[in-house]
Write a structure and sequence with these properties.
Strand content: under 5%
Largest sheet: none
Length: 201
């Protein structure tokens, strides 16, 4: 069971959340998608992969090699501060870039919410409050699907149920690995979900 818990933790690591999010957004029958050129979509995927997936992974590996973090799990709250800071900068720069190239505001808002979640996680880590980034990321995806359904009147029920179930499995995995308490997992999901709703309110 421990091996499966680790597999789930890596498979749904928060670093992959932005890729999952834009894949879902571009796959849904949203009217904006029909107006976006394929080259623009490929550019968005490329920027997200380089800035929000590859760069954080390389930074984490560098920090581990220098002994700044003990492991990629970053179980101690203080270990998360520098990675959160760097991720916040990368998310902020990516948001500004997408705003500069006039990404549709509806999509841009999701990146703003994700940026604010990273900042919230950073601030919480600075006061030694540990919150699950895994569940914050999954909560953000669920919040995004909820917003799409509410504002655009698209049926995302199956996807939303699917990611809620995934959130439950990942939460169980993180609890099993003793990476987080029950409350830290709940707070993480709530933070990610609520931030999406707040940005669109």
């Amino acid at each position: 069971m421990t091996a499966f818990a680790r597999f789930l933790s890596y498979l749904f690591h928060p670093v992959f959340a932005p890729l999952i999010s834009i894949f879902l957004l571009f796959s849904l029958p949203i009217y904006i998608n029909y107006k976006i050129p394929d080259q623009f979509v490929k550019f968005i995927y490329g920027v997200v992969f380089l800035n929000l997936v590859l760069s954080p992974i390389l930074v984490s590996l560098f920090l581990k090699s220098k002994g700044i973090i003990a492991s990629l799990e970053m179980k101690e709250t203080k270990e998360r501060q520098i990675p959160y800071l760097i991720s916040g900068i990368l998310y902020g720069l990516t948001y500004l870039l997408f705003k500069q190239i006039e990404m549709p505001h509806f999509y841009l808002s999701f990146f703003l919410a994700a940026f604010l979640v990273i900042i919230a996680l950073l601030l919480l880590s600075l006061i030694h409050k540990k919150v699950s980034a895994h569940l914050a990321a999954l909560g953000g995806i669920c919040g995004m699907l909820f917003i799409v359904s509410s504002l655009l009147k698209l049926d995302t029920t199956l996807l939303l149920i699917g990611f809620i179930l995934i959130s439950g499995l990942v939460a169980s995995a993180r609890f099993r690995l003793k990476s987080h308490s029950f409350m830290e997992l709940i707070l993480g999901f709530g933070l990610g979900f609520t931030m999406q709703v707040i940005v669109f309110t």
